[in-house]
Amino acid sequence: MISSPTIYRIDKSHRELKSIETPLDLILWIIDSYFVKLGSKLRVKKTDINSYSIDKVIYYLYAVNTEERESEWFDFLPLELTESKNFIQQRISLLLFAEVGKELFVVIGGNSYKMVIPYLDKSYGLNTYARIMDSQKDELVTIRTRGLTGTRAGMSEQFRGDFRIIDFIKFGKVPEEIHVLLSTSTTNNHFSFLTTKQKRRLNISVGRGFKVKRALDFAMLHDVIVELNYIGDLVASDYLSSYKEIRDPLFIENNLRSVLIGKLFDDIPHVLGTTRESVNRFHFDFCNPNSIEKFYEADYYTLLEKTENDGHRQFDKVLDREDIYSTVIKRAVNYHQYSNRFEFMVYLQGVRVNCYREGKKTTGSSFLFHFTTEIRANNRSYFLVDTKWYSLRDSFVDDLKNTTKHLFESYKLPSHILRYNWDKKSISREGDYNLLYNGQIDFIVGDTILVDGIEIFDILYIEGNTLYLVHVKYGFGSSIRELTNQILISARRLRESLASGNLEVLEKLYQKLVSKGRHINGLSKQDFKDLFKKRIVYVFAMASHLSEDFLVDENIDLYESNIARYSLVQCSSEMRANYYDMMVCQIPRR
């Protein structure tokens, strides 16, 4: 028999495993813990594990026959057809562990993945590839990434031949899974035993695990495992991502995780509406880390909390994913009366979010696993993405700073357009600032007016043959991600509408402006639609949130949010490439 298995690495530094001394005891503990979580009384014994040694590798095999019903067919077909048929089939589920040196690898067969998933090194395949990659010669076939900012939470891309890995890597993207054709030299140096005369270069797929894209017999699998152990001692390249993963569990627990819980706890007044202060709001993206599509496509979400007997009970059901965060926080505070940070943290650790589509559960995960955010710890920025922590490499931080400065200097909006200062003491809300322009000649205020869920502009300004569509946000921090999303969504919708000639979006916008009593400069509906025949320029407008009104381009180090910097850089690039010109404005505070 030949197969094409994925090789995973057990994270022996996991807090539940690090005190276990021998590989066999560790294996027994992993399997038993799975049965405990199921509520099963079944336990595995040492005699249930077969072992076999080759060279310096010791293999351990756990295998069990499981019965599974093909429910999709049994439920699909009418009872008259299935009545006398057996829809029960047996499958073998196995875990093949390989102890080599200090490492413990595992190959999974059947439905055993869920037994070991909590204890896998979630970046093993990517980290291994980073040790052997040739950024100039490796050819990228497909890549799946997570975005730290922007409108895309995740992306899967495919490439035609001769697209190099170095051509793809950009800051702001964190690779999740890569399919790559290794260079000839890398293939020869590490996997020559797998090549043939017809195929001198090896395809691999890496993510959580490491997979050779060809059929292997057991002897080949053994050679791959031996080589992977050797590769683990090599120095990793920095080319794979602009982000460096933080892997120290003590640093994560004592520094990063504690800061995250603190951010959530301090956000309680904002969630409850007992404060209007916006500067210290907790900004984040919220999405299931393992199933982005299933999370976004869900019809509804059930929220569960831990019970005293370690089970879970549902306490709410929400239709809109935007309501999950506030519903959970309010539950912790209003129902359970958790008034200190420790109780609050313990409660949140026990909350789960399940997703349902057409009445069936599609995915589920811990509430705390859903956050993507940026925090500051030890005077450095760290990013939480899909339960993993990263820091931005210093070289990319410098690139972000320089590009941000360039945008503020080179694409500056003429100062006469946004002519009013924004004193936060007298004008607390963004909407109040925007309404200063209502009634002014050549201005139209569209703030809070949505057409099909989209805000086309906060402020529109007409000057000669140019139409400026301004979007406004206070502060240059994580909230800038929301501003750039608004700009890109608006530009895409407007471009599609104008290109198709279907101006229904502009007609609806005009009607809502009139019904809201906004000043429209005496324009008829046709006059308003004709405005968009002019040259269109979008405007990214913000005011400083710092105690003093420092200019971004002259004091870039004082504006510490890398998410803000990247959001602006990405938005500017995407706008110019796909939609319209974009200018930048820092609104004076006084």
The biggest sheet amounts to: 10 strands, antiparallel
Compute the CA-based radius of gyration.
28 Å
Number of strands: 24
Low-confidence spans:
none
- Rounded average pLDDT: 85
| SS-based class | alpha+beta
What fraction of the residues are assigned to beta strands by DSSP? Answer: 25-35%
Determine the N-to-C terminus distance: 76 Å
**Which range best describes the helical content: under 10%, 10-25%, 25-40%, 40-55%, 55-70% or over 70%?**
25-40%
Arrangement of strands in the largest sheet:
2-3-4-5-1-10-9-8-6-7
The shape, in one word, is globular
The DSSP helix count reads: 18
Give structural notes.
The chain is an alpha+beta fold and 590 residues long. It has 18 helices and 24 strands. The strands form four sheets. It has a ten-stranded antiparallel beta sheet, with helices on both faces. Strands 11-19-18-17-12 form a five-stranded antiparallel beta sheet. Strands 20-21-22-23-24 form a five-stranded mixed beta sheet. Helix 13 crosses helix 18 and helix 15 (480-500) packs parallel to helix 18 (562-578). The N and C termini lie far apart (76 Å). The relative contact order is 0.08.
Q: How would you summarize the topology of this molecule?
A:
Layout: E1 6-9, H1 23-38, E2 50-54, E3 57-69, H2 71-76, H3 79-82, E4 88-100, E5 103-109, H4 113-116, H5 124-132, E6 139-147, E7 154-158, E8 173-181, H6 184-191, E9 203-206, E10 210-212, H7 218-231, E11 243-246, H8 249-266, H9 268-272, E12 285-286, H10 292-297, E13 300-306, E14 312-318, H11 324-335, H12 341-349, E15 352-357, E16 360-366, E17 371-377, E18 380-385, E19 388-392, H13 394-410, H14 430-434, E20 443-445, E21 459-463, E22 466-474, H15 480-500, H16 504-515, H17 525-531, E23 535-543, H18 562-578, E24 581-586
Helix pairs in contact: 13-18, 15-18
